[in-house]
Amino acid sequence: MVLCIDNRTDYLNNYHFQTLCMLYFPGEKFPPGLTEAENKAYFLLEENDRVIHAKVTLCSGNKRTEGEASFGYDSFSIPADGTFTAQAAVGVAYLDAGYKLFGFLPPWGYLTGLRPVKRARYYLDKGYTNDDVMRLFVEDYKVFEEKAKLSLEIAETEAKMLKPYNGSDCCLYIAIPFCPTRCEYCSFVSYSNDKLFKTIPDYLDRLDEDLCRTAEIIKATGFTLRSIYIGGGTPSVLNESQIGRILDRVTGDFDLSKVNEFTFESGRPDTTTASKLALVKSYGVDRVSINPQTTRDDVLRRIGRGHTVKQFFDAADAAISVGFKSINGDLIAGLPGDDYDGFCNSLEDLIKLEFNNITVHTLSVKNAAPMRFDELGIYDADGVNARRCVSHAYKRLGEAGLKPYYLYRQKHTIGNAENVGYAVLGTECDYNVLMMEETNTVFACGSSAITKLVSSDGSVIERIAFPKYPFEYLSAPKGIGEEKIRMFFNGDKDGEILH
């Protein structure tokens, strides 16, 4: 996509303009120096006497539209600075041009970023009322009323969930980046070929060392471990001996006395067995996730999922029989080959199973996904079907007694929609909220894992990323970033870590 920016202010960077473009042009890239393409966007932003004016021109094929907007610093429902005013001016101008070109408005308005709930919580924490935040989202950010209500509802739930935690509490994430097959939509770093499966023994050796180091770090820093999450990939792709090895290390080296949830993301039904589930439960795992994504066999085949609907129901029955505090199932709205009725039927299947956690994702196609730029038109900015599906899920799951408790957005999402976790009261996954809202330190181990160091007041966040690919992870120097952790928590790199 051709992107031309004439920014005559000190506000906003080029990335902000790119993220705006993707509201109507999902999947686009912005190579420097490009002068000709099917789609083009031109931005002008200037300021005069504390009034910021924006003009946006959009072109698609032989169609061309323009939008303009001007705002002063005092134009909003809350006190605003130059950055806020610039975002509003260029956002409203962009929506004006986009609506003229495509005939619809995105449900999240011009709100960019992955965490709208975090923004709602920020204003609530500053003393603004629910009505104030509703006006901010609907009138200023141009967010649809349903999405604004959803954000507020989740913000209030998250505030209650976060209340028992303080800056000395931490989480542990363990990455198992292997899958039996690669899903067509996959945006995670996971692997499914024989050459990589052969690295599993070496991978577990390295993971074992990293877990041992992490346990020592947590003790030295004085953190209290509150939540453990084993994710992937597909952790259940490991055999029972391999799973037991990881759990032996976790239960043997870490202080679990204050852990209030322990999640095993079993993931794929075709690798989930009753014996594996019974094994993890015996180690204290109280939350599992078994993810069908859809309960239509034809759609499962279309997306390369590699399991059947029957296998999902068998795995679900096994999890119910073993007995866990919480069982989660994932669905994806907007899958190729699926439709509104198909999604609604899949949702009813999970409700009938009485899963007390259901996560509704919207299809997001990342650059590494096999279905990117699918010939059937995966990148549908309007995304009517996906938007209907997530709206139905919000209403139907509420009727079934599951309330939304965390939300995040992704780039390249069909219909500019969102991902929402729903749960029966008291069965929510704290890890999802702590990780998404970045309120607490998360120590991570394994290929593609990212440790997040959060200062005690939450004002500073630093990340330590492990190599993405298993071969790189195995060949990288050993260590979990101890020196950086020491420096972050004001310790001496040659002495004891201080917290």
Kindly list the characteristics that best describe this protein:
alpha/beta, nine-stranded mixed β-sheet, globular, 21% strand, 16 helices, Double Stranded RNA Binding Domain
What can you see in these coordinates?
The protein is α/β, with parallel strands linked by helices. The protein has two domains: 1-103, 2-Layer Sandwich (Double Stranded RNA Binding Domain); 164-445, Transcription Regulator spoIIAA (2-Layer Sandwich). It is 38% helix and 21% strand. The chain is built from 16 helices and 15 strands. The chain has helices spanning 14-24, 82-102, 116-125, 130-140, 145-162, 194-197, 200-221, 240-253, 274-282, 297-302, 309-322, 340-352, 384-399, 430-437, 470-475, 482-488; strands spanning 2-7, 39-48, 51-60, 63-72, 169-176, 224-232, 261-267, 287-290, 326-333, 357-362, 403-408, 419-423, 441-445, 450-454, 461-465. A nine-stranded mixed beta sheet has the order 11-12-10-9-8-7-6-5-13, with helices on both faces. The protein has a four-stranded mixed beta sheet with strand order 1-2-3-4. Helix 8 links the parallel strand 6 (224-232) and strand 7 (261-267). Helix 3 (116-125) packs across helix 5 (145-162), helix 7 (200-221) runs parallel beside helix 8 and helix 12 packs parallel to helix 13 (384-399). The longest helix is centred in the middle third of the chain and has 22 residues, at 200-221. Residues 492-496 have low confidence and may be disordered.
